[in-house]
Amino acid sequence: MSATNTGAPAAARAPKAAATTPMSRMTALARAELTLLGRSKGALVAGLFVPLVLPVSVRSAAEEMDLGEAGLTIGTLVLPAAIGFSLLFAVYSTLVGVFVVRREELVLKRLRTGELRDAEILAGSAMPAVATGLLQCLLLTAGCAVLLDLDAPSAPHLAVLGLLLGLVMCAALAAATSGFTRTGESAQVTPMPLLLVSMIGSGMFVPLELLPDKVASVCELLPLTPVVTLVRGGWTGDLSASEALGALATAVAWTAFAVFAVRRWFRWEPRH
Amino acid sequence: MEANEHEHVIEVTDLRRVYGGGFEAVRGVTFSVRRGEIFALLGTNGAGKTSTVELLEGLAAPAGGRVRVLGHDPYTDRAAVRPRTGVMLQEGGFPSELTVAETARMWAGCVSGARPPAEVLALVGLESKAGVRVKQLSGGQRRRLDLALALLGDPEVLFLDEPTTGLDAEGRRDTWELVSTLRDAGTTVLLTTHYLEEAEQLADRLAIMHDGRIATTGTPAEVTATQPSRITFELPEGYFVGDLPPLAELGVTGHETDGRTVRLRTRELQRAATGLLVWAERARVELHRLDVRSASLEEAFLGIAKEVSAAETAHTRKEYAA
User: Fold this and answer.
1) Interatomic CA distance for residues A142 and A158, integer angstroms
2) Burial class (CB in 10 A: 0-12, 13-18, 19+), A94
3) DSSP output for A131-192
4) Where are the alpha helices (H) located in B191-266, listed in sequence order?
5) What is the pTM of this model?
6) In this predicted complex, what is the ipTM?
7) How large is the average pLDDT for residues A60-80?
8) What biological process terms from GO does the record include (chain A) (predicted)?
9) Secondary element (H or E) of residue A55
10) B188 Cα to chain A: minimum distance (Å)
């Protein structure tokens, strides 16, 4: 260690040359998080492999269902499910782990001593996983179109809205869940309730159209249901305006709730 | 620019911090730090040093009192303060899977007017570790990485929470040298430490914290001057304390015995020592393990901790009695 060339910086202290902007700060953070994502085997498996494999099992289940009655095809069943898996694994459960591990490593605390604002820390950390999720969904869409003879969507704006809302909602729900997760190990467990409930009740394996009405109307209120509904509706074009608005409202409500939960319960430091 | 804009770069008034469980870690702390000064917060573990510094860094809002850093509230006016401060937390805070260079690059992207990352790594002697993952660094290397990142933006105010814990003697000396150089170049430094030598070497002024309060404050010389000097020796065979010359006449203000060991306290060290040695010479006895020393910061520190605890014990007893 040499202390010889420390004189220069103070002389150059006058005006700050390059001030950071929210975007430049978040980009720097996101770049580091992307490197970390690439180095985390667990995140790679959960985030890349699972969402690409699980849809295959949906497909084999679909072959035993009476899809025609619900106005569905294998393609319009598998694609929304695949997007749902991607959001749950690549975005939601990956980010719960990211937020918890960064908190336990005191990275979040350290970041808060700098120029980054709280929201920038959360958004910057979430960016790589959200981008991975988005990329996956696009690949899955292309894959379904080619392999399952999926036609062009009849209402693409609904599918796009559903996907974007889903990405934001899952990132926010991940931050909220991390507030209730003490360690990196428990981050493997705390996302399970939402994963299971969504897989069973959000129309991923079994479309809500095939469920009893009362059950279906409860399932409609689950966080991931509006995403699946909007994506599916985007392709089938079967959603009425009120159904589409209802789904959007549900997704926005869950996102708002997640943001509230983050403000209320997010932890920046480990418990003492 | 603005060299004299703020005579006091850090101003803390009656600061309080209370944790969730109701524990009051900081109980009314007041001090100020002038521009270009190194100010040390000294104290045992649990004295409230880190709790105080975190309030100055703007990591939490105080439960009471006021903090101003460069004239702003560091918690509510984050955007105004952060580009001008550098912070080294007590413990790491870096993703373990990133390399040193990646960590520095990430931080540089979040700091206005950042210096080239390689330059600050060289400053702390970590240039050869650039490609090493953070998890493979030693504790001391991690501390130096933390210091490097705190220096990235050429901060006007530097907060160092136990900057040399985990460093070996050489690393500690290098850090001291670096921090002094920064001060000489005009940086204001607030550091916490439980190494008395560190405070003695570095600090222009210091405050000793105990139990969430400041027990004493001043320059190292001023703080030391509040304490008596000390003479320790073993009583010769066959002698008792009563055989010594009248202690009050030697300027001794108090004494303790522990077996055959006698400890004298005095504010007139030369007079007391001379009196004692002349007596020994005349009595033709040798004073074994003779140790004559002026007050040091260490004694001041231990003395204050003892005084405060004793006062508290007395207070508690009174409460029980009442």
Assistant:
1) 17
2) buried
3) HHHHHHHHHHHHHHHHHS-PPPPSSHHHHHHHHHHHHHHHHHHHHHHHTT--STTGGGTTTH
4) 196-202, 220-225
5) 0.87
6) 0.87
7) 82
8) response to antibiotic
9) helix A50-62
10) 11
Distance, CA of B227 to CA of B304 (rounded, Å): 9
Q: Which of A40, A113, A117, A271 to mutate to test the interface with B (most CBs of B within 10 A)?
A: A113
Instruction: Name the amino acid, one letter, at A171.
Output: A
Task: Give residue B317's pLDDT band: very low, low, confident or very high (50, 70, 90).
Answer: low
One-letter amino acid of B27? R
Let me know: does A55 contact A140? Beta carbons within 8 Å: yes
Q: Where are the alpha helices (DSSP H) in B48-89?
A: 49-57, 78-81
Mutate to test the interface with B, among A20, A39, A99, A272 (most CBs of B within 10 A): A20
**Which long-range contacts (C-beta less than 8 Å, at least 24 apart) are formed by B173-180?**
B174/A1, B174/A3, B174/B125, B175/A1, B175/B124, B175/B143, B175/B144, B175/B147, B176/B201, B176/B202, B177/A3, B178/A1, B178/A3, B178/A6, B178/B123, B178/B124, B178/B147, B179/B38, B180/A3, B180/B38
pLDDT tens per residue, range B71-125: 999 999 999 999 999 999 998 799 999 999 999 999 999 999 999 999 999 999 9
For residue B87, the chain A residues in CB contact (below 8 A) are 110, 113-114
H runs (alpha helix) in chain B: 49-57, 78-81, 100-108, 117-123, 139-150, 169-184, 196-202, 220-225, 269-283, 297-321
In whole angstroms, give the CA distance from residue A98 to residue A128. 11
Go through B117-135 and write b for each residue having 16 or more CB atoms within 10 A of its CB, e for each that does not: bebbbbbbbbbebbeebbe
Q: Give the strand pairing for B64-69 and B38-42.
A: unpaired
CB within 8 Å: A35 and B102: yes
Question: Token digits for B320?
Answer: 């029980």
- Whether B285 contacts B239, CB under 8 Å: yes
Closest CA to B144 of B123, B170, B116, B159: B123
Are the beta carbons of B269 and B294 closer than 8 angstroms?
yes
